[in-house]
Structure formats: structure tokens, C-alpha cells
Design goal:
Largest sheet: 7 strands, mixed, barrel
CATH topology: M1 Pyruvate Kinase, Domain 3
Strand content: 25-35%
Helix content: 10-25%
Radius of gyration: 16 Å
CATH class: Mainly Beta
Number of helices: 7
CATH superfamily: PK beta-barrel domain-like
Shape: globular
Strand order of the largest sheet: 1-6-5-9-8-7-11
Distance between the termini: 35 Å
Number of strands: 11
Amino acid sequence: MTRHLAAVTAVCVVHAVKPGHFHETAIDKRPRTARVRVDEAGLAGDEQRDRHHGGPDAAVYVYADEEAALFAGTLGGAPRPGLFGENLRTSGLDVSGARIGERWSVGEVLLEVRAPRTPCPNLSLHVGVPGFHRELHRSGRVGAMCRVLQPGEVEPGLPVLVDHVPDHAVTVADVSAGLSPSAARELRDSGVDLAPRVRRLVLRRSRETG
């Protein structure tokens, strides 16, 4: 059932591979105006240089205009699309407030929310603000890593429909914060298929009291 309507404001792929904190990084994304093919590996023309940030459970990184705007003061102006390393920039969608396992229909593409983005020092190097990756993490507005359930093509202006909302209340921001034991148990018992790193966190935190 459709629960919400939003839109894609930018579709971004790697512009240049550049030196990073520990290794080369493909974080420098720039908008494309033409339609871009999306499959289980991500967007055509994009790259993932770090195995810890890539794979099918992180094929498409989605970030919201509304979240980016929160950091305009720190970054010296409105953050351009792609600055955070995102593939899709959206408007009208609570990306970090989405539930794990939530599904979004973007044109003919179907995405499933799998995990929060884990900000690393490469982000701080990229934006030129020391420690920015830690500020982003503390905010909880980290954006969502998504798996591609149905491939297709995307372009700016496409509507984003929330196609499915799972029957639990655990959000991307909750997982980014480390999960309370009760939230971990709720997610564990929800029956939602979990990305391996989220599953490890859930199992560890669900054994704790509190």
C-alpha cells in the first residue's frame, strides 16, 4: 500500500576517484541529468572502492534534501547533491526516519532500506571539515543504504512512493545510534530479513538488559 509521496531531486554517480584517509574513495558523486540504470550492484557509472561500504545491501545510498540542509551552517552553505556521497537525493521523504525493511518505489525501481550509512573520515576529507563524519553520526541523520529488489532506470523528478512499511518501529537512525536492547529485540522478532552487520548488532544488543 502506498503510504507517502516524495520525489527524487538528484541522481548522482562518481565524478572522480580521489585519495582517501586509508585508501582511494569514490565518495565524490555528482548529479546526472539523463536516466541512469540501476541494478543489484547499484547505479551504472558508479563505483564502490571500500568493501565495508559496498555490496548488495549498500547498492544505493539515499539522502534527503531536508537532512542535508541541517548542515548548511557547518558546511558554509546549502550542500550540493552528491556531497555526502549519496546516489539519490530526495525531497519529502524521511530517509533516516525510515524503518529497517521499508521499501520505496522509485519509478520502476524498488529499493529496500537495509542499514544506516556509517560515516567515515573520507567524508570529512571530502567536505573539508575536520571531524564532520562524527558530527553527522551524532546527528542520526545519516541516510539509508538500500538493496535493489527490482532494477530499472531513475532520473530526477521521479516520484518516490513508500511501498511497504514493516510491522516494527526501529528506524535507520535507531540502528545508527547503536540500538537499545528493547529495540534490538523488537527488530529481531519482527521477521524482517536483516543485513549481516545489522543482524550482528541486533543479536549482540538483544542479549543485553535495559
